[in-house]
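Human: I would love a firmer grasp of how sequence relates to backbone shape in proteins. Could you go through the record with me and say what the backbone is doing? Here is the record:
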Amino acid sequence: MATFKRSDLDNQHDDLQGKDALDKVREIAEKNRVCFFVTHALDKNSSGARPMTVADVDDQGSLWFISAIDTHKDQEVQQDSDVSLYFQAPDQADFLELRGRAFVSQDKARIQQLWEPRMNAWFDGGKDDPRVSVIKVVPDEGYYWDTYKGGFASGVRMLVGTFLLQETHPDSAEGQLRI
């Protein structure tokens, strides 16, 4: 089994742009639909970070979320549309960090399209509840870490190889995303 010195890490660095970046966003976001959604206009009663479930990743690479218009999150997005999203695929060592702009609306057609029955737990009136909103996040850049083999063993190999042995194995890639 071949190993590489730290100086060979560039072989695993793969910056992506355009369609390739969108494909990587979709791939990792669909492995784990839950992310930390972080706003930057903080309300004194909000940490700015909360777990959210991605309802859809559209063909343009925008990520859609069902929300509530009266939450700190929606109010913070309306004050400052810059947001960050942080993903980790559950059984993989795949990570994704995205930065972009978020937009809140109460578009009934989009709510209808994204609605799932499990969402009734948060809204007394279901999809017709006047509090229901959608948030569209349009990412413009980010960073990904992706293991080709995934799983716990690959993560351990990466940690041991990189930090203890000062070497790594060619079963992972990482890079900037420009969308």
